[in-house]
Amino acid sequence: MDATTYARTLLASRRPGHSLPQAFYADPNLFALEMETLFLGEWLFAGHACEIPEAGDYLTHRIGMAEAIVVRGADGAIRAFHNACRHRGSRLCANGAGNATRLVCPYHQWTYDLDGRLLFAREMGPGFDPRDFALKPVACEQVAGYLFVCFARVPPDFEPVRQRIEPYMLPHRLEYAKVAHQTSIIERGNWKLVWENNRECYHCAGSHPELCRTYTDAPTMTGVADIEADDFLQQHVARCEAAGLPSRFHLDPGGQFRVMRVPLLRDTESFTMSGRPASAKPLGAIREARIGSMLLFHYPTTWNHLLRDHAVSFQVTPLGPRETRVTTKWLVRKDAVEGIDYDLGTLTEVWEATNDQDRTLVEQNQMGVDSPAYEPGPYSTVHESGVNQFVDWYCAAFAGHLGQEAPLAAAVG
C-alpha cells in the first residue's frame, strides 16, 4: 500500500476524541508525506521582521527539502526566495542569518540582487538572457512584525489570518523589538506530540513548578472549551478590552489559529520567578500594567506569548518522524539594554526550565507510543479540549492536502 492510500485509510479509521493511531507518530513514509503536502502547503512561521532590520539582512527557514531565504531589500520590502541557485541548484546561503549586499552563489558566483534578479552569470554564451533566471519566489507575508512563508504554488489566503490577529498584536509593537536571546532544542519525539503537549496544561501542576508560579493550569486558558463560563478569564478580558486591548477568545473556523488574552495568577505581571516584569521598558505603548499574556497559536509551526514587558515566540520544525526542533526567542523593546533594563537570566529562566521539562515529557511520550502495547487513548473532556482540537485540525488539514474529506470531529468539553 502506498503512503497516500495508507494515510487516507488511517485518517478514516481515527476514533473521535482519541489520540492518533501509532503510525502517525512514527512511520517515516507518513512523515515524508506530511512534509511534502501539509508543511509545503501551509503558512509557516519563519521569524521576526526585527531580526532583519537593514537592507541585505536575511534569515533562512528550512522545512523538509525546501528552504527559503527571507531578505530585506534595498527598498525596505521583505521578500522570500528558494535557497537554490538557478544555475545548477546549489544552496546560496549556508548560514541561518546574515547580511549580504548581493546574493552570490558560492559554487560558480552567479550573483542576484536582493529582489531576486540575476545580475551576473559569467561566460554563459550567446543567447543567454539573465531575465529568465531570477530566483524563484516563495510567498511571504508580514503581520505585526511576524514573518510567514508558504512554499505552495498557490498559497492559502493569508488575509483572514492578518485581519483577525493583527489588532491583538499591534499594541506590542514587535516591529520595534529585538531578540534578546534564543535557544533551539531537539526533542526526540514526533512534532505532533510536541503540539499535543503544548495544547494542554493537564500536566502543568506536576511538571512545571516555575511556570505555575504565574500561569494557571485552568483548562480554559490553554483549551478551547467553556471559555465564556470562566469568570476569572472574562473579567480580565473585559478590563483589557476597556483599556483598548483586543482580548476576546477567537478560534479560526478552520481551527488553524487561535488568539486571546489571558490573566496571570494573583498580582503577577510576567513569566518570571517573582512575577514582576523582566524588562523595565514595556513593549509598545501599553499603559495597563496587568494585561497577562496574549496567546497565539498558528498550526503547524508556532505558539506565542505576548506580554507587556516582553514576548516569547516558539517555532516547531519537524526534523524526522521522531525528532523535532523547538526554537524559542525572547523579544524585548529595541532600546532596552541588557544589565540595565533587563537581566537575561530573569528573562529566560522560566521558559528555559519549562522547555527542558517539556522535552523530557515529549521524549517519554514518544517512547511509550512506540511500545507494541500502545493504542489510542481518550482525551479528558475537562482538560484536553485543546489537544483534541489540534488533532481534529491535523486530520482535516492532512486529509484536505490528500484530497480526502476528513472524518467528523468530536466535541470535547
Automatic annotation (TrEMBL):
Q: Which Gene3D superfamilies match?
A: Naphthalene 1,2-dioxygenase Alpha Subunit, Chain A, domain 1 (3.90.380.10), Rieske [2Fe-2S] iron-sulphur domain (2.102.10.10)
The segment(s) forming the Rieske domain are: 43-149
- Molecular function (Gene Ontology), one example: iron ion binding
Task: Provide the alphabetized UniProt keywords.
Answer: 2Fe-2S, Dioxygenase, Iron, Iron-sulfur, Metal-binding, NAD, Oxidoreductase
Q: Which cofactor does it need?
A: Fe cation
Signal peptide start and end residues: none
Task: Name it.
Answer: Aromatic ring-hydroxylating dioxygenase subunit alpha
